[in-house]
Design brief:
Layout lengths: L2 H10 L6 H14 L1 H4 L8 H31 L6 H10 L1
Helix pairs in contact: 2-4, 4-5
Length: about 90
Amino acid sequence: MSSRRSRSRQTSGVSRISDDQIADLVSKLQQLIPEIRSRRSDKVSSSKVLQETCNYIRSLHREVDDLSDRLSELLESTDSDSAQAAIIRSLLM
């Protein structure tokens, strides 16, 4: 354990996550991220896993924004009192 982390633990009195817990969480992330999961090699650095996780989350945000825009456009072209409009509004909320 680094002396900085050890010092931080002593001064703050706050419980910190262990290196084993970090390794376990990185392993779980590695299984969730399609870009990493599709690779043949099991050996991926923690920093690469975190970088790919951030990239994946950004792509999901873009996809959600795009789908919201498309639903909004669809709602504008639909009769506002129709059942279809109600469904679209519920998806946007």
